[in-house]
Sequence to fold (572 residues):
Amino acid sequence: MERLEAKKIGGKTYYYYSRWGWVDGKCRRLWQKYLGKLEDIARAVDGGPAPQYAEVFEFGLPTAMWAEAQRQEVALHTDRLCPKRRQGLSVGEYLAVAAVNRAVEPVSKRAMWDWFSQTTLRRALPGADQAALASQRFWDHMAAIPEQTASELWREIIKGVLEREQIDLSRLCYDGTNFYTFINTFNAHCDIARRGKNKQGRSNLRQISYALFCSRDGHVPVYYDLYEGNTNDAKQFPVMIERFGQFLRQVSGAAGLSATPDVTVVFDKGNNSAANIARVDALPLHFVGSVKLDEHSDLAALSNQDPRLVACHRPRLDGFKAFCTSKSVYGKERKVVVTFNQELFNAQFRTVHADIDKALAGLAEIRQRIEDRASGLITGGRAPTPDSIRRQCDGLLGRPFLTELISVRIGSDPSLEYQVDSSRIEELSDTVLGKTIIISSRLEWDAEEIIEAYHSQFIIEHVFREMKDRTTGTWWPLNHWTDQKIRVHGLYCTIAVLLRALIQRRAAQAGIPLPMNRLLAELDGIREVVNVYRRRPRAKEPRQQTVLTRMSEIQERLVELLELKAGMACLG
Fold:
C-alpha cells in the first residue's frame, strides 16, 4: 500500500511518498521518499526545480586517453620499475598524467593543475589536488626515472601492446627528426642538446635529435631513441638499426612473436651507404629504400614513355608506371623498381620552371647593373669583377638542374651572357622528372608491393608533423634542461603518440577511419555537464545530475566503441 503523507516540522508542512506493508502481523512503513513542500511538488509537475548552476568538464578526449593508458598498463609498469613509498600519487600515475596531457592538450608542468581540474580525470585520481600536481612534484617524480630505466620502461610497455593488440611488424618505417630548444648556450647540465642543421630552420638554437620506428599497421610507434642534436642522420643510422635489432629480439619472444620476426624496414635515401646497408643485411632485416638517380645513370636515362614502364593497377598507385629488374647494389643482388609518377612529374616540372624564371630574373638584374656601370649610370660602390659575378651566378643557379639548363658566360670586360638550353629541358622532362628508383632486399615481392611499401614512408612524416604541431602536437612545450629530464620528456611524449595511435587504430578497425586531427576534435567535443541543485533540508551535499553534451552520430559511435560512459559519474 502506498501513501502520500504530510508532516509538520517547525511549523511547515512537508510531503513524503511512502510504501506500507505487513511486518510481523503489524502494518509498518517499508520506505519513504521526500517530495518537499507543496510548491516543490507543483514545480516538479512543471518540470522540476532548475539547477542553481552547472559545471562543464572535458570528458571525451581525456577519458579515452586515460582508459587507453590504463589498458596498456603505463602506470603499472612504471611503478614496478620505479617503486616509491605509499605516499601520494605514484611515479606511474605522474607519468600517466603527463602522457595523457601530451595526448590531449599539452601544457607546462606549472599549468598542469589548471588543465587537470577541468577534466573528468579528477574522478580517476581523487588524490590528485593542486599541491600534488604542482610543477615541483612532477619534477621530483620525473627524477625517479633514470635514463636507462626510461628505455626499459618503453620496452615493457611495447611488449604488452604487441601482445594485446597484435600489431603487424612486417613493415616498419624509420626516420629521424630534430626538435629545437631554448636551452641556454652555457648550460653545462645538458649534453644531448647541441647545435646542428635544424629541419625547422632554427639552426641558431640547440636541438635534440629523435629517431623513430613506426609500424604501418595503425601508425604505432614501436621503438624510439633520443641522441645528440649535431649528429648526422646517416651516421646515426647504423647505431639505431643495431639498437632496434636488439630491441626487436628482446620484445619478440615476450610478445609471442617468432625469435626473428620477418621485418621490412622502409627508410629514405639519406641513410644509404655500403656500410649501412651491410649492417641491415647482417641483422637480418629486409629493407625498402631508394637511390639517387645519378648513381644509376642507365636507369635514369630510361624514357618516361618507354614501353617497359607499365601502369600499376592497385588503387593506391593510380598514376604510377613501373619497370622492375634486378641489379647488384651495395654488394648484393637487389630488386630494383623504376617508377614514374605523373603527380610527382607535374610538381617537379612546375618547380623547375619556377626556378628557371627566378634565376633568369636574377641574372638579368646582374647584367643590367654591369651595363649601367659601363654606361656611367652607376658610379659608387665596388666595381664588379669576373670572380664576384661568378659567385653571384653560382648563388642563383644553386637549385637542382639549373647549372645544366642555363649556360653562363662571363667576359673579362666584365660582361655577362646567359642562355637557356631548351633541348636539355625536354630531355630532363623525358627522363628524370617524375622518376624514382626504389631498391629492396625483398626479391620475392612484385613491383607494386615494393612501391606501396616505399610510399608508406609518409606515415612517419605525418607522425613527426603531428608531434611538432604547436596546437595539437605532443612535444611542445619542452621546459627541461638536463639530459635525464629530457629523456623522460621524450618517453611520455612518445607514450602520448602511442595512445593516440592505438585509439585511432581501434576506431579504424570498427569502421570509423578518421584522420588524427578529426578524431581528436570529435572526442574533444564531448563534454560532461554537472547540474548542481539546491541542497535539500538536512542533506549534507547538494543534489547533482550528470549528463553529456549532445553528440553527433560519430561521437556516439566513439563513446560506445571506447566504452567511455563507464567513466561517467553516477547520477546525483
Remarks:
- The longest strand covers residues 12-23.
- Residues 292-322+329-443 form one domain.
- The two ends are 28 Å apart (CA to CA).
- The chain has a mean pLDDT of 90.
